[in-house]
Structures are given as C-alpha cells and as structure tokens.
Amino acid sequence: MEIQQLYYYMELCKQKNFTEAGYACNMTQGALSKQIRKLENELGITLIRRNTRKFELSKEGEIFLSYAKKMTGTYEEMLKNVQKNQEIKIGCMPVLAPYHFARLVADFRKEYPDIKLVIDERIASDIQENSDRYDFLILRENMMEDQKKFRFSPLYDDKLCAVLYEKHPLYGRDRLQLKELKDDVFIFPERGSGSYEVFYKSCEKAGFEPKIAFEFPQANTIMSFVSEGVGVTITFSTVYREAKCAGVKMIPLEDELHSVISLFYRKNKPLDYAKKQFLNYVREHLYT
Fold first, then answer.
1. Which of 68, 181, 187, 244 has the smallest number of Cβ neighbours within 10 A?
2. Which residues are listed as membrane-spanning (predicted)?
C-alpha cells in the first residue's frame, strides 16, 4: 500500500464521484478506479458499494476512511517536522496581478512561515524553456507544449472580450462576434507572453489574421493606445476590469472564447511535504 493511494481514496470519498475525483487527482476515471481496486484487493475487502445508484461506502470503507485520515495526518506531521525551511520555486507568466494571486501567497506565508516561495515572473515562452528550474509553473493551459509530462490544477478560467474606443462604429453594441473586427488594427500583448498566442489563435479561429500595429508588455499601455483610437484589442474580462481607462469599453464576445490558467508540476518528480502543502492550499483556496 502506498501513501498516495490513501490520498486518492480520501479525494474519492470527498467528491463522491469517480470522474470528479479523477479530475482532482489529475488522472482518468479508469486509472483512479484501478487504484481503488488495488486497495480493495490488498485489503481483501470491499470499500465502495458498486450496486447502488448513489456513491456509498461499505462499513469497512467507512472504517478505512477514518484510518486513512489518521495515517495521512501523521505522515504530514512527520514531514513537517523533518522537512523544515523548504523552498518552492515557481515560474509564472506576468498576468497574475488582476487575479489577486498575491493575496493567496501572503495568506500561505502566514500559515506556513517555514516554507519559502520564490516566484520568478517571465514571459510564458521563457518559463517553458527553463521549466526544469521550477517546482511549479503557472501558465495558460493552451501554452503548455508538452502536457503529457505534467500534472496540473486549474486556477482561473477567464473569458475573452473586445475592447473598443469611443468613436468605433461598434462601440454601442452589447455583444459582437470577433470576426466583425477583422478589418481593424489591433494592439496586442508582446509575442511570447502567452496572452499574445491566445489572442492570435482566437482571431484565426474566427477566420482572419489580425493586423497588429503595436505590441506592449503592460495591459495599461495597451488600453491607453486603444483609448486614443490607435486600434482595438481583445483581452480577458478580469484583466480589463483592472486595467480599464477612460474612453474604452469592454464588449462581450458571442464566440464564447476563454482560457484557463493552471498550476503545472512534473509527473515524474515526487512532491515533498512543502510542495504538497502548497498544492493543496492552492486547490482549496482557488479556482474562479
């Protein structure tokens, strides 16, 4: 029996659903089911009643759950005492300010003062090129080139919107399709940032290649150029609310385009106590 199997079992009991628990554990429903079967075979008992429509533990399953909680609690206490002053290196793209990630980091440091977080903010392409340097990566899911090597936990899911200047012909609209902006000039984030690639691919999906006049690393600069009528842009609704300025308007897109920011970590690299605590803390306090 492996300690990780206990965590799988506890997550399943929490979710009461193999699909949801598998997603939380970053594995398929079938893979999770095999782990539970393996536990049952080793113990020689049935943990979960499978002949009912609703999720239900057997009597033995209830007893085993209580012991699993005690065993993992003791395991984590042991790790906490022997693995003090741990350091976690996080590579993240420069997009987290609007999502108030700093608040989570501050709260985590208060709860785990012995764990040091080192956050290296770089454009997405640099983070991927140097991924071996980090314990965790914070990137948009569509930017991760080799997802098979990583597990991930979603942090934020945000929709794309159009941002237009006051004199634009479509400024008065409540909603629009991205293809309606195919003849406009765009102001984009800098290439390699992650957002650039999301926006460009969204335009391609809408049937056109955007005519990009300028690229800037800061959302505030992009908004200022839009407000002066230099061009239009597309961005994430959360980013817009943080960076909006006078003379611009956010218009929702009927295309329903969105992008998920996730926390990635390598499958073949075991997580020590500090990294597990950070991962669990993020899962419990984030996903909007």
1. 244
2. none
